[in-house]
Amino acid sequence: MDRTIQQSLGACVALTLLVPRDAPAQTAIQCPGDLDSDAIPDPLLPNLQPNPTYRPEVKCKHLSAGDGFVTMADGRELYMFGFSDLTGVPQADAMMTGMLNASFPAPLITVDEGDELYLTLTNVGMNNRPDLFDPHTVHWHGFPNAAPIFDGVPDAAIAINMGASLTYYYKVVEPGTYMYHCHVEATEHMQMGMLGNLYVNPAQNKLANGTVFANGFVHQSGFTYAYNDGDGSTRYDVQSAIQLGSFDPDFHDADQTIQPLPFADMRDRYAMLNGRGYPDTVNPGALAPPEGNGGKPSQLQTSRVQAVVGQRILLRFSNLNVTRFYTLGTVGVPMRIVGHNARLLRGPSPNGVTPGHDLSYVTNSITLGGGESLDALIDTSSLSPGTYFLYAKDLNYLNNDTEDFGGMMTEIVITN
Description:
Blueprint: H1 3-18, E1 58-71, E2 77-85, H2 94-98, E3 106-112, E4 116-123, E5 139-141, E6 165-171, E7 176-181, H3 186-191, E8 195-201, E9 224-225, E10 235-236, E11 238-247, H4 249-256, E12 270-273, E13 305-308, E14 312-319, E15 326-330, E16 335-340, E17 361-363, E18 365-368, E19 372-379, E20 386-392, E21 399-400, E22 403-404, E23 409-415
Parallel strand pairs: 1-4, 3-8, 11-14, 13-23
Antiparallel strand pairs: 1-2, 4-6, 5-7, 7-8, 9-10, 11-12, 14-19, 15-18, 15-20, 16-17, 16-19, 20-23, 21-22
């Protein structure tokens, strides 16, 4: 096992074992190079000299796990569980900041291939369910962990109890579109909203300016790609997250009011993109905070896609829903599917140098089940300026519960 992994594993185990049972609630952030315990590595010491513990490949993130509320597009508030981003929050303020601060979807995590990610999770407890002592974890779906302890599955990993923190370590080795979620009582916690996206940018983004690929494509500084394609085929200019999800309001109400949870009768009636139903999906900013959140916004991620004619759009689709397959489609906007489940759709290279056979395909609709992701490229050079729609092909998902003309739909806006 890599020495860095061994050291981090030992530190995490020690952190868990050395906290007394009757210790007060506290957070503990592990982030190499962080001088002030806010989960942000500091390149300089207070005297402006280089920080000897700082390494640019180290990325840190601090998440809280707790509860809160979200507002559906028909105005109904629903109780939910979720994560919030505490990165940059002083360690002493983390518990109070994290309470009633759950967001849906969970905060986006973006890292680069080759990074070392130190992800601290603090369980701040359930403000609206003080009787509920659920632990929480982070499961990086589809990621090849070096050790089971960091996988987040409670059978083989540590789960974080209320008032405690645990730092996960990941050596990031494969680019693509991933997801993360809580794996404790997974059906309940995922239905309640503990779902988020995690993107790994490929090393190809950092090639030297002017690098020439085998097919003659010339890389330029600032070019971004979905994968290490070797031929520039997955280059994009703008990207958008499209997380498919849905809620069963009866399940959420039962959880809030301490009633038996209707697992067998789970029927999602709010189909959403990035935690919103249409027309909220096209609101470019955060939605107004629900009344139950005490002024804290919980729906931060828009689903509106915007580009200029000639740009290439990368749509990162993901589905962590526990009840449904969903099909999304467009009208007049062809999508080239270049990746599936964080893998480039490409055959093996015949000589180890030139790219393998291209397995990408063009379509107007995609179907995703729970735990799947797709990477789709849209070339706008052949599109006319205007507003196009991305929507559920199963038309019964184009509603907000009993309210028609909503649900799983958003806009792709192309301008000159």
